[in-house]
Hints:
The complex is a heterodimer of chains A (about 600) and B (about 140). Helices cover about 45% and strands about 15% of the residues of chain A. With about 600 residues, chain A is α/β, with parallel strands linked by helices. Chain A folds into three domains: about 100-305 and about 320-425, 4-Layer Sandwich (Purple Acid Phosphatase, chain A, domain 2), CATH 3.60.21.10; about 455-515, Orthogonal Bundle (Recoverin, domain 1), CATH 1.10.238; about 525-600, EF-hand (Recoverin, domain 1). In chain A, the strands form seven sheets. In chain A, strands 1-5-6-12-14-13 form a six-stranded mixed beta sheet. A five-stranded mixed beta sheet of chain A has the order 4-3-2-15-16, covered by helices on one side. In chain A, strand 18 (about 500-505) and strand 19 (about 510) form a beta hairpin. The two termini of chain A are about 40 Å apart. Chain B is mainly alpha-helical. Chain B folds into two domains: about 10-60, no CATH class; about 70-135, Recoverin, domain 1 (Orthogonal Bundle). Chain B has seven helices and five strands. Chain B has helices at about 15-20, 30-40, 50-60, 70-80, 90-100, 105-115, 125-135; strands spanning about 10, 45-50, 90, 115-120, 125. In chain B, strands 3-5-4 form a three-stranded antiparallel beta sheet. A two-stranded antiparallel sheet of chain B has the order 1-2. In chain B, helix 4 runs antiparallel to helix 7 (about 125-135). In chain B, about 20% of the residues are buried. Classes of the chains: A alpha/beta (about 600), B mainly alpha (about 140). The interface of A and B includes residues 1, 22, 32 and 434 of A.
Amino acid sequence: EGCGYLGSIKAAILIQRWYRCYMARLEMRRQYALSIFQSIEYAEEQAQLQLSSFFTFMLDHFTHLNETDTGKDKKKFNMKIPRTIEVPDSYHGPRLSFPLTVADTNSLLHAFKDQQHLHARYVLQLLHETKKLLKQMPNIIHLSTSYSKEITICGDLHGKLDDLLLIFYKNGLPSEENPYLFNGDFVDRGENSIEILIILFAFLLVYPNHLHLNRGNHEDHIMNLRYGFTKEVMKKYRSHSKKILNLLQDVYSWLPLATVIDSKVLIVHGGISDTTDLDFLNLFKRNKHMCLLHDGVNSGPLLEAQYLESNVRMPSVPSELTAKEWKQVVDILWSDPKNQNGCTPNKVRGGGCYFGPDVTARLLKRYNLKMLIRSHECKQEGYEISHDGQVITIFSASNYYEDGSNRGAYLKLNPDLIPRFVQYQVSKCTRKQTLHQRYIEWSALKSLREKLYSRRSELIAAFRQYDPNYTGRISATEWASAVESVLHLDLPWRTLRSRLVQLAPDGSVEYLSCFNDLEIEPVQPALVETLYRYRTDLEIIFNIIDKDHSGLISIEEFRQTWKLFNSHLKIDIDDESIDNLARSIDFNKDGSIDFNEFLEAFHVKEGTAW
Amino acid sequence: VFDHECNKTVDVREIGTIIRSLGCCPSEGELHDMLAEVEEEEPTGYIRLEKFLPMMTKVLMERRYRPIPEDVLLRAFEVLDANKCGHLTKEELVKYMTEEGEPFTQEEMEEMLSAAVDPETNTVRYRDYITMMVVDEN
């Protein structure tokens, strides 16, 4: 090295070499961070499906226990227009007047940008009118691009109002000249699901022929229980939340299932399967389908349990749908494309299929279609083209997993049916790219460590299989197999190992070290672990029981619910431990538990190592 | 991480990323040579694990293409810093990276600039830049 021209070339090559290596390692970390988020998300969806009948039972049972209105009254209420709810003069939010006009949609957008809420009375009216309109629509909507120049198609929004506002800013508001289609999953996860629904439904009422909606797998009340929408509504609307959520269930069931543009482009939320029958889908009564996770076909054994002075039976609540109807709908709302040929059940999500390019080709040919547009999966760039251009995935919630994790996108379809993609990313901070990446990765690994912790006992048992002499160490390969056998997340464990656990100088894994950095206030370790694992579900149950949203439930209710939960999941915690726990949580000994305090006790505190 | 079809193959375009994330730091030319060793006679666009593994094992055992130590990197920047003022201008960096050696693509250049350029002075204070990148790796 040294002087002159030759020196500078060598220096340049060196820097370029170094930089490319650095970027490659960054890319690798980005990929596995994203795959961690994704696999945890899908595994949770699967767990959700397993608990769906239990939650439905809880919902139905509690409606019966704590209120005097029976199922019949509930129906009657939904028919009435909610004129009886008074809007106080102190309310400064938007006041809607039906039929809606552009003035209303403008005032809604304005209000939501200012973080205001729409009063429950207007929400209910809006939902009511929306349901009336949706009822007139067929299961599969047929559109034509002949009038307008282009139609804009958006994917999952998941309660991210900033993304919707950004789309409207970049692409203009919906109107006769600017039609839109939103392909499902408007709610859950983000903080403004209800605001998004309000905006979309309001535009639907103003421009019924130019604003279109497809149902997504999250337009389902059981999904909403777990993924945050129910909680959002309960928090924002308190005593009116139950009415709103009930009416919303009806609205969901009337959302169209699919859209076809120019008889050439099929748009559904998830995908297809090898048995997808569009003619059948168009004909059956879609609103029978109150809840998609209600697997009426799966009638498991009846569970009997003691509950608050009565014997209750937990049936698998029968759905009114036939097996075929249920499968057809679940397939289009839950399926994902894959690269290999064939059609296999989507075990990761627990519903729908993985469909290959051959399945796509056959379906497109059968119905004389040109392509399939779908959403349902988060994509780094906001969109992805697969199956040789026949399948497009469009995803509109940027930063879905974490700030900076992905871009969002929408596509514009012109009369030639050639898609044009527009990408964007909402960002609240201007962190440099490298630091951003670090944060996303840290966040993904934190979720993963929590998952490891929640299965601690099983993992340790699996590790010990390879370590009969209790040396505390096993090989990397053994560690990877053990972890996968317990967690079933299908992640690149060997690659991740250095981030999750301590390694001995010879490369072997000190398997207990992955539990070291997390501190949890110990009550009873085994109980803690179980509670920790199920804390989301417990929270859901708690929200169901806590009718007046006071944050408190009685100890007796807690005890009984936990026992029910126990027997449904076949967990092995004895009654005495539960009683001790209940007593220890009731700090002021007044017979009621503040659930938020309870959850705080199980909040995972990271050690300073990270 | 890259075997998307779960059939022990990866897309040939990802081989560079894979090799580099295993701790090797080859130049583009060296990468090209490695690729030639593992590609099929009739390039399919995919690389098979069974061909890749022996080649990669050998490379790792021979400790070829070792990563560049921090001080060597620093000296490389210093060579480019003709005036020895402790920084490069944005234009100088762009010129070297896109015209000399194994030139960057526009995308690579933009990405490097986004992290390397100090927005207040519009220069590349390379010592700080290197320190920041090295910390991030660990």
